Amino acid sequence: MIRVLHPATPPSDDTMGSWGRAAAQPAISEALFALHEHAANVAALHRPVCLSSGRCCHFADHGHVLLVTGLEAAWVYQRLAVPTPTEETSRPSAKGVCAHLKGGQCAIHSIRPLGCRAYFCDAGQGPWQATLAESLHSAVRRLHDEYSVEYLCAEWTWLAAVLEGANERGLLKAGPLP
Ligand code: SF4
Q1: Looking at the 3D structure of the chain, how many domains does it have?
Q2: Which protein residues touch ligand 1 with a CB less than 6 Å away?
């Protein structure tokens, strides 16, 4: 069972810094890439139809909740360019739409969270998606434990907004990325 925390306040700078340092470790990157591959292989077995409708990214409209851990979210945000103060940032909208949905397409497709890789709105699909999502989340939870990285699992738009701010402040920066 996924344990979800709903923190009343953002994680501390120390916590986010530790996520950033961990996310920059090659072994963690390799583990996440392997989970991406596993998710793709499982999805390929079931052949869900994806019409690129963007429905899975409109959380409020479709009652979909995307959960991501601090480590995985830091890994994603570490790989995004830090905008300059004059650039438009990609903060989540108040309508519950993912900030990375651009023109109906995922702008961070290659590094999107695991939860995005285990959810399809294809009505003809069975419970395999929930099983996959649980197993992927458990694997990331084990990475938190194995590398002694503080565990926090939260709703994506909330965590993304928090980490975008952390990224702009350089908290997630940790050298060359694998
Ligand atoms: S990261 Fe990409 S696939 Fe995931 S919810 Fe956002 S736009 Fe959709």
Answers
A1: 1
A2: 56-57, 66, 98, 100-101, 106, 108, 112-113, 116
